[in-house]
Design a protein that fits this description.
The structure is a single chain. By secondary structure, the chain is an alpha/beta fold. It has two domains: 248 residues, P-loop containing nucleotide triphosphate hydrolases (Rossmann fold), CATH 3.40.50.300; 95 residues, Helicase, Ruva Protein, domain 3 (Orthogonal Bundle), CATH 1.10.8. It has 16 helices and nine strands. The strands form three sheets. A five-stranded parallel sheet has the order 2-3-6-1-7, sandwiched between helices. A two-stranded antiparallel sheet has the order 4-5. The termini are far apart.
Length: 411
């Protein structure tokens, strides 16, 4: 695939050609903890005139090929997400060109699946490719009133910050909410009152709402005028939510009875219907705003091996860089990666288990080697299985760098 013309200026990759030498290209965004006079949200003025055309030219296969570079497996989720994203942003493009669709139903997405299978990585990578602002938050941080927890409208204000104050860009961003299952009933058949209130507030945003650019109770710093543009519309903001949905299998079993004998938990969750989500604790109006639903599968040890070996955002790049800072070249043998993958699979936290295992195996190497003359570390199965013994062998007979003596204090 050649260069792709995107809707907004962006530094995201324009080619889906696999380049193993690349490091991670999806850079995390940092949300300002406190507003200041330099906060772009406080400087928002009348938005720039809309561009004549939102030049979205990606096709579903283009997006999936891009996602394949960073996320292992989850082929069905990639396909479903690619189609939903293309449908949404093609609708945005046509609308901006004057081809309106007054009865268009926005294709907000619900992702189901255990932790560490790549749900967040999928959405962030897609947003980076398309070139739209992206905001991620946990649904549990919000409350119905906003006094105890956060106000859901802050999600939209975060989009404005991500867009450097450009309302035109923010109004076509992506909001990603994780742990959405936590605002449903805590157990099948129950209701959490606060969670229902958050659902009600969210569904207004997910459909078509005008959100004040600044919180009504917010006072700009002295000398900073309030934005001239008072609100931003959410009509073209795509909402994607996800959760592990532990306990959903019980709801599905109750509905299907003995017909589910022998079916795995992940498969039962994947077969959940709208009525199952309602029984789980979601309001019908809320789950109705999420018409596109797909389940992500758990990762096996073999999958985790390929995550490390094949993903362009492999965790290994991080460790190579950390050792390289001290002039040490680290390399990973296939048998070493297999051992790491096996131990990570036992953690039951998906790809997050890779970091847990790598830190446990390599922490003493990271502490000791920078103070030695050792310039190479090969991580094989023996290093992963017995890191202490491997480090002792490596250090044996090697002299430490002479430490710089500090001058004696003056008498």
């Amino acid at each position: 695939m050649g260069p792709v013309s995107l809707g907004f200026d962006t530094s995201a990759p324009g080619s889906s050609k696999r380049r193993r030498e690349d490091t991670a290209v999806v850079k995390p965004h940092v949300v300002p903890q406190q507003q200041s006079a330099n906060d772009p949200l406080l400087k928002v003025s009348k938005p720039k005139p809309a561009r004549e055309s939102f030049a979205f030219k990606l096709r579903p296969r283009d997006i999936k090929e891009h996602l394949d570079r960073f996320v292992i497996r989850q082929d069905e989720a990639k396909k479903v997400l690619s189609v939903a994203l293309c449908d949404h942003f093609q609708h945005v493009r046509l609308t901006r060109e004057g081809d309106t669709a007054p009865h268009y139903v926005k294709q907000n997405v619900l992702l189901l699946g255990p932790t560490g299978v790549g749900k967040t990585h999928l959405i962030r990578s897609a947003a980076e490719l398309i070139g739209v602002p992206f905001v991620k938050a946990d649904a549990t941080k919000f409350s119905e009133t906003g006094y105890v927890g956060g106000d859901v409208e802050e999600l939209i204000r975060d989009l404005i910050r991500r867009a450097n104050g450009e309302l035109d860009r923010a109004a076509q961003g992506i909001v990603y909410l994780d742990e959405i299952d936590k605002i449903a009933g805590r157990e099948a058949g129950t209701r959490d009152v606060s969670g229902r209130g958050v659902q009600t507030n969210l569904l207004k945003l997910m459909e078509d709402a005008d959100v004040p650019v600044m919180s009504p109770n917010e006072v700009p710093p002295p000398g900073t005028p309030r934005p001239r543009e008072n609100s931003i519309n959410t009509r073209h903001i795509l909402f994607i939510v996800s959760g592990a949905f532990a306990g959903m299998e019980t709801v599905v079993r109750k509905r299907r009875g003995s017909a589910v004998d022998g079916i795995s938990t992940s498969q039962l969750i994947a077969e959940a219907t709208t009525q199952d989500f309602i029984e789980f604790g979601f309001e019908p109006e809320f789950i109705g705003r999420l018409p596109v639903r797909v389940s992500c599968k758990g990762l096996t040890a073999d999958d985790l091996y390929h995550v490390m070996r094949d993903s362009e955002s492999s965790l290994l790049r991080q460790y190579e860089r950390a050792f390289r800072a001290y002039g040490i070249e680290v390399s990973f043998r296939a048998d070493g990666l297999r051992q790491i993958a096996e131990q990570a699979a036992a953690e039951n936290t998906g790809a997050r288990g890779l970091m847990t295992v790598c830190e446990r195996v390599l922490r003493d190497f990271k502490f000791e080697l920078p103070s030695t003359r050792i310039r190479e570390l090969v991580v094989d199965a023996s290093v992963v299985s017995h890191p202490g013994e491997a480090l002792a062998r490596l250090l044996r007979g090697r002299r430490r760098k002479p430490s710089k003596a500090r001058p004696a204090p003056a008498a």
